[in-house]
Amino acid sequence: MTDAFLKLTILGSGTSTGVPVLGCHCAVCSSAEPRNNRTRCSALLEWSGHKILIDTATDLRQQALREGIEQVDSVLYTHAHADHLHGIDDLRTFTLMTGKAIPVYAARDVLDRIQGLFSYVFSESDTPGYRPRLQVNEVYGPFELFGQMVIPLPLAHGSGESLGYRVGNLAYVVDCSAIPESSWALLQGLEVLVIDALRFREHDSHFSISAAIEVARALQVPKTLLTHLTHDVDYPRHSAELPEGVEFAYDGQTVMLPLPELQER
Ligand SMILES: [Zn+2]
Ligand SMILES: [Zn+2]
Ligand SMILES: [Zn+2]
Predict the structure, then answer these.
(1) Which domain holds residue 233?
(2) Is the pLDDT of residue 200 over 80?
């Protein structure tokens, strides 16, 4: 079947500040290497002609312009931290184009937070032209989206929680400092893993690079992309030190993989 492919685009591979960091003049922040330029962490999944955002990062407009995204069919939210959420108003342009609400998926507490922080989005009294139109869906287990199963992966993120997502044999696991046993079972048999790997030093709320590599190794994933990177990572220099099958993600990077089976509706 010609449509049975999943395409991943790394929209943003950077930590919450983005790289370069404002006011920083370190070698990475001053670098001319495009893969050292990191917008806030987000990805685009595409299957069967549908475009699904993971998060609405602070840099969504810039990411959409760069990747030529002119359609958003759904959004999967990992959690409600600002770097993953605050591009939400940029969805307005997409809903203005179609006149249709975009289905968004998130855990209950994340939906509550979104509806509290961005109450104008959900206010019926505000003119639709001034707010994105969203159709809210609570995630409490696997669900079908455009003919594929989307499997949410509960993750520990410091003292909080986030949701990773698995579609076919690809899993996207940010922001994350530990993977609970129940989610570990859902990560077996992956072909591609995109995983939080903030920096070399440890951090309370994120995997370090070595901890993320350990996860990839334990899961025996053939291809792992490390994302949510700080300015500690100099792409060309540190790439040479990574084990086989593990690479740093970079903005605009794409990966294609076959979908095991496309359900007929
Ligand atoms: Zn983050
Ligand atoms: Zn810097
Ligand atoms: Zn976070």
Answers:
(1) 5-257
(2) yes
Q: How far is the CA of 229 from the centre of ligand 2 (A)?
A: 12
CATH of the domain at 151: 3.60.15.10
Torsion of CA 27, 212, 246, 220, to 10 degrees: 170
Q: Is residue 265 part of a domain?
A: no
Question: Residue 158 Cα, ligand 1 centroid: separation in angstroms?
Answer: 11
Q: What is the pLDDT of residues 89-105, one digit of tens each?
A: 999 999 999 999 999 99
Number of structural domains in the chain: 1
What span, in angstroms and rounded, lies between the C-alpha atoms of 104 and 94?
13
Distance 132 CA to ligand 3 centre (A): 23
Question: What's the 171 CA to ligand 2 centre distance in angstroms?
Answer: 29
Both ends of the chain: CA-CA distance in Å?
Answer: 14
**How far does the centroid of ligand 3 lie from the alpha carbon of residue 228, in Å?**
10
Cα 185 to middle of ligand 2, angstroms = 37
pTM higher than 0.85: yes
Give the distance (Å) from ligand 2 centre to CA of residue 27. Answer: 7
In a domain, 264, yes or no: no
Q: In whole angstroms, give the CA distance from residue 207 to residue 215.
A: 10
262: in domain: no
* Ligand with the closest atom to the CA of 81: 3
Alpha-carbon distance of 223 to 258, in angstroms, equals: 14
- Position 138 in a domain: yes
Q: pLDDT (tens digit, 9 = 90+) per residue, 228-254?
A: 999 999 999 999 999 999 999 999 999
